[in-house]
Amino acid sequence: MVVLVTGAKGQLGQAIQSIVGNQPSIDFVFCNSSELDITNLVNCEAIFKQYKPNFCINTAAYTAVDKAEIEPEKAKLINIIGAKNIAEVCKNNNTILLHISTDFIFDGNSKKPYTETDIPNPSGVYGKTKLDGEIAIQNTWGKHFIIRTSWVYSQFGNNFMKTIIRLGSEKDSLSVVNDQIGTPTYAVDLAEVLIQIILSPITNNTLSNTFGIYNFSNEGKCSWFDFASEILTLNNIKLNMKGIPTEDYPTPAKRPKYSVLDKTKITTTFGIPIKKWKESLKECTQLL
Ligand code: NDP
């Protein structure tokens, strides 16, 4: 079985690479953005022709949430045209596509965890382009899994956890938003779930049709303030922490106030157990 992974140098791409040793039955092909530019259909076709993947995990994306507000065309090109190109070549090669999407497709006005059938209503350019990327895939190729996730962190790349650790060692006090609620996701847990979907007998049974949208994050919920506090505690960093409202930390792109994802569908379909966010954060911290 050949699994091709796009965006190999990104956070999730590296997280997948960190667990491939556990999967000797899979031949992984990792392509970074210079080897496989998802905005270039000819490039995509050539790579698929060369490796003939059974599955493609598309981790490649434009992920600069705030910068997207000032360069929407670039975000559209990567998150919509890029996603469509990948779906197109998957269709031409009968490759099952696993694509990653985001909680930012929701407006955050809900009071209960978002299910896969809740109506998206993104507030910013990044969320809009990720939603349009999902739609482009759905309109192009039926054999897809779209995994929506949230607040991804890991020992790889740049992320909130690393920023807090850095700020914690530079500053005496830290103000963090305490009125946005969501769930952190350890990229390595997400990577493992993607592999479990690929290897699942349900996915590989031609009679069952489990394709579609799934939510995945760790279990539980917290604010960015709670997340930051736990990061500092686990890293034995002591400083004054202050919880502040969103209005006191303005950003170019609006964030959803509430983006907890309901994971019932992924757990019942694939029998996937999900770790609590604090447990996974502890695991990740031990690797730093
Ligand atoms: P990263 O920004 O760490 O990685 C994205 C990767 O995509 C980079 O390596 C980048 O390469 C690559 N890329 C950008 N443009 C192209 C292109 N045209 N062709 C090929 N590759 C390209 O993101 P994450 O790994 O954190 O995110 C993975 C997925 O998860 C994304 O779909 C993201 O939208 C989604 N997600 C992420 C969340 C988070 O908190 N990080 C939350 C929710 C969802 P290069 O650097 O060389 O440009």
Write the topology of this structure.
Blueprint: E1 2-6, H1 11-19, E2 27-30, H2 41-51, E3 55-58, H3 72-93, E4 96-102, H4 125-140, E5 144-149, E6 152-153, H5 160-170, E7 173-177, E8 181-182, E9 185-186, H6 187-199, H7 201-204, E10 212-215, E11 222-223, H8 224-234, E12 240-244, H9 264-270, H10 277-285
Parallel strand pairs: 1-2, 1-3, 3-4, 4-5, 5-10, 6-9, 7-12
Antiparallel strand pairs: 8-11
Helix pairs in contact: 1-6, 2-3, 3-4, 5-8
Bound molecules: NADPH dihydro-nicotinamide-adenine-dinucleotide phosphate.
Which architecture would the CATH scheme give at its second level? 3-Layer(aba) Sandwich
Report the CATH superfamily: NAD(P)-binding Rossmann-like Domain
Which structural class should the secondary elements be placed in?
alpha/beta
| Name of the CATH class | Alpha Beta
Report the radius of gyration as a whole number of Å: 19 Å
| Bound ligands | NADPH dihydro-nicotinamide-adenine-dinucleotide phosphate
Major pleated sheet: 6 strands, parallel
Please give the oligomerization state of what you see: single chain
